[in-house]
Amino acid sequence: xxxxxxxxxxxxxxxxxxxxxxxxxxxxxxxxxxxxxxxxxxxxxxxxxxxxxxxxxxxxxxxxxxxxxxxxxxxxxxxxxxxxxxxxxxxxxxxxxxxxxxxxxxxxxxxxxxxxxxxxxxxxxxxxxxxxxxxxxxxxxxxxxxxxxxxxxxxxxxxxxxxxxxxxxxxxxxxxxxxxxxxxxxxxxxxxxxxxxxxxxxxxxxxxxxxxxxxxxxxxxxxxxxxxxxxxxxxxxxxxxxxxxxxxxxxxxxxxxxxxxxxxxxxxxxxxxxxxxxxxxxxxxxxx
Length: 288
Description:
This protein has ten helices and eight strands. By secondary structure, it is of the alpha/beta class. It has one domain. Strand 5, helix 10 and strand 6 form a beta-alpha-beta unit. The two termini are 14 Å apart.
């Protein structure tokens, strides 16, 4: 971690060997999660299936707590919780309320989201309509993304159809041999790491029917504590694969150049800097 911090501060790459080792550790954490019982079980057994059993016990405890303490919103809370993996599986990842009920509106479910967030079961990101110095001032509460507080639990919740996850599935995820939407896992863990480092979660979304050139979505926006003549908002895009484009980020930094500080892309490769963007390995998220 000392080397990682130094490389982040000096904007230097770790080098292929150290980066690969850091990513291996990061991927282990990503699929095991940070729940103490799950971590302890993996350290003692190195058995992903036993770890998965622990995580499923925790998920069941969450469900029991929802029934026990959720009050009149318990059914709504349960519906949201069960729906999170399929919502994050979508390309845009914004929570669609009609998936809960065709007539559902945010105001009817706001209490349920608040309960989940206060219980630290989920992390919620809100849309901000302008990357201004006070992101909360332009918050659009009804447009939100809902992430599981622990990414290891998300993985077990996502593969819930057949009970325990097979050891082979974990190993395929670990070694990039399984074809599924890793984007939701990577975006979830970035949300988790930003919250753990004290950040509030915001994203930016704009859809213009009349002009597609104005269409853009930025995964996260964070406010830097140091204020200069600029507003010091940093846009963050999360990329899970090797080949990707970042047209939204280019349009965003052109449109709001007077508002922005450093532009980031978090990806699976080593640190580099080009085209006015800092490309960071995902494990450096905690240093932002």
